[in-house]
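Is this the right way to post structure tokens for a design question? Let me know if I should format differently. Anyway, here goes:
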């Protein structure tokens, strides 16, 4: 029998604190919460507008929720676990015990892990329920979120546009309230791009703060894992849970001493007052195609200024596009890192190397060239070393800039033009700065472009805040204050509340 939430309680735009308050008042159960999200997926993901954000559901989700309800009923005086009963959407290149992890690729069918990825285990230990695995740009190797297994995910704000990528399934699903919290991965832009395109919050943590074990890799110098949520507070709660040392991912040894006591405690709506934020003007476009984004950004920046932030113009091309393009190393690492992952895949997986993946002739056409390039570049040690050296030079250059100007953060639009229509490749995204340096960045909703035929609300635009290594606590405080002042989050009209 279908369980419904008490009238007046809706999963639309639900938050962790909101659902827990309803649970503690006896107005909501974990099972009811899960069922209502499943109902929305049924109504809008494959049917209705056909968002196509979900690749597969967790068949045990309702049973897990019922178990949590029984535990809470047995000890009603006990406080709820941090994420008790909260439904998660997990990008399908992150392992979840007993659920296929295909990265959207037909050739990875049968990849059913025996254990959770570190971050998934931490979230489940906090009481969360994995509701579904989400579509992504196949093998996380593109920005439009299309795959052989999931097809093309649509942007719920404009069904003719992409949802960004590669974590676009998670982004579209969280925007449409198919889950309460989302987890994505970010090799270049892949958490922050869907956040920008779907009016969400997306956090790329400092390299070493969050484990990547259990991840289908693209290139581990740049790959990381982070939250995609509807609010900054919920992103901070997720980071509180997933940040930590994992012996299976040695890079987290560097981050262990930098973990904040809490990223979610002490958020202050007045945190922008006195903050010094550098505007990377080179990261703003100056052509007619950039007008929509620039108009939203100008209004958002005026709001930040009104909250007491000092906005410091940085007009010179401190970080030229050509330098950024020459710092990325994922294509040089993809073969070795993916081969190592596939070597340990379950016996049912038929591919054991990147060459096997290409030879399968089953990958989506949008990634064929990327995979071929990765094979060709795998042995180019000289160019690879030079790019790593450029990354280090870029880190030093950015730190020197921030020190010289006394900056708390840098700010710019995540994407200089609106997220592209389906059939086009993403253009002029700025997220590469964080991926090339390994420094943290957070995207928040800045506003919407003017309404148009296919986008009655307009198209979302995201503001990116970039900081020094392990400055997540500061970035989150600034992002929270900006979020509260801007009030730019709106649910998409294409996926309204169910009657």
């Amino acid at each position: 029998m279908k369980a419904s939430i008490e009238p007046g309680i809706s999963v639309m735009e639900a938050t962790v604190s909101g659902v827990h308050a309803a649970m503690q008042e006896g107005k909501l159960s974990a099972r009811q919460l899960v069922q209502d999200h499943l109902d929305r997926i049924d109504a809008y993901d494959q049917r209705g507008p056909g968002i196509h954000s979900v690749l597969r559901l967790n068949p045990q989700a309702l049973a897990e929720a019922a178990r949590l309800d029984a535990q809470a009923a047995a000890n009603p005086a006990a406080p709820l676990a941090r994420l008790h009963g909260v439904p998660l959407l997990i990008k399908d290149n992150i392992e979840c015990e007993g659920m296929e992890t295909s990265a959207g690729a037909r050739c990875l069918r049968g990849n059913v892990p025996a254990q959770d990825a570190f971050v998934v285990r931490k979230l489940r230990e906090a009481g969360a329920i994995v509701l579904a695995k989400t579509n992504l740009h196949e093998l996380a190797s593109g920005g439009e979120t299309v795959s052989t297994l999931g097809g093309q995910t649509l942007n719920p704000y404009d069904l003719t546009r992409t949802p960004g990528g590669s974590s676009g399934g998670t982004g579209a699903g969280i925007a449409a309230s198919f889950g309460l919290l989302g987890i994505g991965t970010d090799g270049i832009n892949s958490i922050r791009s869907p956040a920008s395109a779907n009016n969400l919050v997306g956090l790329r943590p400092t390299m070493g703060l969050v484990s990547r074990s259990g991840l289908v890799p693209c290139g581990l110098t740049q790959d990381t894992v982070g939250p995609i949520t509807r609010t900054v507070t919920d992103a901070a709660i997720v980071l509180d849970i997933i940040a930590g040392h994992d012996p299976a991912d040695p890079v987290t040894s560097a981050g262990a001493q930098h973990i904040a006591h809490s990223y979610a405690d002490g958020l202050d709506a007045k945190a922008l007052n006195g903050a010094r934020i550098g505007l990377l003007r080179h990261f703003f476009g100056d052509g007619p195609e950039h007008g929509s984004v620039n108009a939203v950004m100008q209004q958002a920046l005026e709001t930040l200024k009104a909250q007491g932030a000092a906005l410091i113009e940085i007009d010179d091309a401190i970080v030229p596009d050509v330098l950024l393009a020459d710092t990325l190393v994922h294509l040089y690492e993809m073969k070795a890192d993916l081969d190592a992952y596939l070597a340990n895949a379950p016996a049912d997986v038929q591919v054991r190397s990147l060459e096997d993946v290409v030879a399968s002739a089953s990958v989506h056409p949008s990634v064929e060239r990327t995979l071929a390039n990765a094979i060709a570049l795998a042995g180019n040690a000289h160019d690879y070393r030079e790019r790593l050296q450029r990354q280090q030079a870029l880190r030093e250059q950015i730190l020197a800039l921030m020190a010289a100007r006394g900056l708390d953060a840098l700010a710019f639009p995540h994407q200089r033009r609106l997220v592209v229509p389906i059939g086009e490749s993403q253009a002029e995204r700025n997220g590469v700065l964080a991926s090339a340096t390994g420094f943290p960045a957070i995207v928040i909703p800045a506003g919407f472009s003017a309404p148009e035929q296919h986008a009655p609300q307009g198209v979302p635009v995201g503001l990116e805040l970039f900081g020094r290594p392990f400055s997540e606590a500061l970035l989150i405080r600034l992002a929270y204050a900006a979020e509260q002042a801007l009030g730019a989050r709106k649910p998409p009209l294409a996926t309204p509340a169910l009657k």
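Format looks fine. Someone answered above. Worth noting: The domain at 16-268+415-486 is CATH 3.90.1300.10 (Amidase signature (AS) enzymes). The longest strand covers residues 441-448.
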